[in-house]
Design brief:
about 65% helix, globular, binds fe (ii) ion, disordered N terminus, mainly alpha, two-stranded antiparallel ribbon, 2 strands, 11 helices
């Protein structure tokens, strides 16, 4: 578990962490028992991570020999480390879902084929896709943290801690994909193309996946559940769209998006004791700073 902090050209950012999560108990797909639809939306996104994030890593590794800025090279390596940790942790969690949901295998096959295809695209397109995904993840991370009490309140601590750790690190490395793309290509047209492609791709695949998970639950056919899902999506998009719009500005840089104080407090908590951040107390999400479950 180490903990090196890099002074980037855009301020101190990345800490390299190894998180002590474990998913010994299967059957936690409805990790937020009061919100099974949100649970499955998050699970659907989690299923993509062991395919999407290795693709991002491969793109960055292909870009690496072309980069001439030593600070950016160091940041790229730290980005690769963080993304590597993310998909490994999600894979462990996804395996626990797959043991309960036979449809997971088919969902994973589609994702594997998608990223095999994307691996064959030009490096410019792949880096634009990476930056597009990162800008979307930054907006989602800020939205999840701001709305944490509604979305994660009173839910399973481990899954919540996994999701919020991931997005806190997405916020930490928000500048890297932008700076790598800008350093090598810097085209507004391709940046926006990558953003639109990545957003539509991830949202569409996530929708297909949560539909199948909810079908297996018997909830997709349930009118009350579909109304809850519609209301939830409306709430999410109402909060997300204003956070996505700045990406279209020609002068956009992720550094312009300020970090939520809750995420900064989480990082301080991790430095004090990493175990604390792996068991967040979801009953205290109304408080300004994160707290962990008592031992
Ligand atoms: Fe990630
Ligand atoms: Fe990321």
């Amino acid at each position: 578990m180490s903990d090196s902090i890099v002074q980037s050209q855009h301020g101190p950012r990345m800490t390299l962490r190894r998180m002590p999560f474990s998913y010994e108990k299967p059957g936690k797909a409805h990790w937020n028992s009061g919100k099974p639809e949100f649970s499955q939306i998050v699970n659907a996104a989690s299923l993509a991570m062991p395919y999407l994030e290795p693709h991002l890593i491969r793109s960055m590794r292909r870009a690496r020999p072309k980069i001439t800025d030593p600070i950016l090279l160091e940041q790229l390596d730290q980005y690769v480390y963080q993304e590597g940790q993310h998909y490994q942790q999600h894979k462990k969690y996804n395996d626990s879902i797959a043991s309960e949901y036979p449809c997971v295998h088919g969902i994973e096959e589609v994702l594997a084929a998608d990223y095999k295809r994307l691996d064959k695209k030009s490096l410019r397109f792949r880096l634009a896709y990476a930056e597009g995904f990162e800008s979307m993840a930054l907006a989602i991370g800020n939205m999840l943290i701001t709305d944490r009490e509604f979305l994660f309140g009173n839910s399973d601590s481990t899954v919540t801690s996994l999701v919020l750790w991931h997005f806190i690190e997405e916020i930490e490395h928000k500048n890297v994909a932008f700076d790598v793309f800008d350093h090598l290509y810097g085209s507004y047209f391709w940046r926006i193309t990558g953003f639109l492609y990545a957003t539509v791709h991830i949202f569409w695949r996530s929708r297909q996946a949560y539909k199948r998970l909810l079908q297996q639950d018997g909830l997709w056919q349930n009118l009350k559940s579909r109304w809850r899902l519609a209301g939830l999506l409306l709430r999410i998009f109402k909060k997300l769209i204003p956070r996505l719009l700045p990406v279209f500005r020609p002068g956009y840089h992720p550094e312009q998006i300020s970090d939520p104080q809750w995420a900064l407090d989480w990082a301080v908590m991790f430095n004090a004791d990493p175990e604390l951040t792996s068991k967040l107390d979801t009953c205290r999400f109304d408080e300004d700073s994160p707290a962990s479950l008592p031992n």
